[in-house]
Batch of 2 targets.
Target 1
Amino acid sequence: MICQQCGAANAEDASRCANCLAALVKSASPSAPAPAPQPRTPAEYTAAPVPNANIRNYLAESILVTLFCCLPFGIVALAYSSSVNGKSQSGDLAGAREASAMARAWCFVSMATLLLFIGRIAVQVMFSMLMAAATGGFR
Ligand SMILES: [Zn+2]
């Protein structure tokens, strides 16, 4: 290996230079340069933990089902969805995910209630039309 002080060539296992007696440092050998820092890939950036994780709050869906579907269930969904952002910002990611799941569930309950309501009315209308036809109401 090459001496850093005087440039003299020494044995690979020598701890001191035979020419100037300076301590030989193996890592400073020019034949083994320090590895250059690798540029970070985009995947490493996305894999890094994000303090404010993007958790869906279903706020738009909750407002829609409150307006157009079932008001009491929609209000429950709204209460959960409005608490998602506050919980995720305060670091309570588990609570934010739970509130997000509850908001989604209540949106589904509200929509299902509306569909059942519409279906019930449709069945009643069809039934009354059938009854009218059977009793000669259309003749
Ligand atoms: Zn030397």
Target 2
Amino acid sequence: MSEYWQKDGFYWQPLGGNNIDQISGHSYQYTDVIYDVSNHLKQVTSIIVDLGKFDNYQALGVAGASAAVPDIRFLLSSSLISAQAILLTHSHPDHMNGIPHYLKAGYSLPPIYGGKYTKMILDDLYIQFNIAAEIRPDFIEIKEGDILNIGSLEIEVVSASHTCFDSFGFIIKSHSTTVYHTGDMKMDLSTYFRKPTSVKRLKERSAEIDYCVADFYGVHEDGYAVKEVDTFKQLVKLIKHSKKNKIFLPVYPTHPEMYIIAFLAALKLKKNVIFFGNPDFYSYLKRIIDYGINFSDFAKERIKVIYTHNRDEIKSLNNNYVVIGTYNHVSLNFDASSKDSFGIITAKSFFNPLKGQFNAHNIKFVSVDDYPVLQGFGHGFLKDIEELSQILPQTTFIPTHCPVYIIDYFRELANFLNIKLIAPTPNNNEVFLLSKEQSILVEKRISLWLSVLYQSGVASLVEVEQKPTSGEGFLKRTISKRRCMSKFQAYLYQRKKKFS
Ligand SMILES: [Zn+2]
């Protein structure tokens, strides 16, 4: 390992967010190295943003592995660049589930900074992994607007529109440059009971933001990512037009925002609500309620809200309700029939058995295939990044959370749209020196993952080299190389036509 910290500057390294076969395993290193006028090393500050797990660990081919995590070991040993903090953007597994595996492997971690909801989900993980209180790292709860002073870095916490509570971005100011790290987000301002992206603050600090690590991957989709208000409106419309009394509205267990949007649609139409689902659904529902969302309070006297599938309780709702949850059958508890029932399926494939049930009972339903807006979406599309680049016109963008070829193919269109992109496209584990004037690739390193193997409750970490992204496998179903290239060509053609 060469010692890039022998030169003054601000260094950035993706440790899991780029060149991946699946969207997961985020972790980024930011290191501020300061030399004084007589060229003596004055101060070094390193932080890590996110520590996710890599979902597609089977593809790495390590027999017996149960997970894979980014390699941050060099930031945990006692060296000059050892990390002083881990900042968490939000509570999703691909951004923080690396934490329990490192603790299980015997590493101690620096203090963790994250939101209230993030801490609730992290505490659940500690229990699930049986991690003793003594070895849990310190947790510092943060909120929008907080300024964190860590070593030489000044970090402002900004909000991000995403699918879970307390999703943040960070404006990281070093001695030589300022970087806005977005976290998973879209530009949607219509979030319910959560702060939307801090557009006003970004505008205020626009002139000083030199780089934007745009950690969302939807740039190959045109238009804006689905706005929550549009999902809400569509639900209201569908429920209303069905003219049925009993509405079955299944949602993904890990999408709290959908529980809330579905509830608000029911409330708007004065239909009672039954939360009904599997243990996973109820555990996330409990987190939402523990966080402070009190559905019964919102309902006031207007509707009844129940959390069981007790027949008598259901009877008390006078056959006027929306069932929100996870269930793959139309339970006998609801006496559902084609006359009085209607289904709205908000996720792909997960609820296929339920579709079968609807068909068996001749119950009409619509699905996300008919109305894509029903699924919601947490990651910005092309229009989101265009809008962000207009707010930050002088900023160089570093798209992450996507395969490298997406960024490469995006260049021509980005150029047309006046979006400045970093060059060359960063690969996982490469180190970049970021300064006001320029970005320089200072170190090429092979892309490594650590496969996690467990024996008697203790984790061992095995190095595995990541091969370049193939654009096949998982990605073939989402965005293959060829489809990606032709999409960008089509967008460019449409836009050129508009201006000619
Ligand atoms: Zn996320």
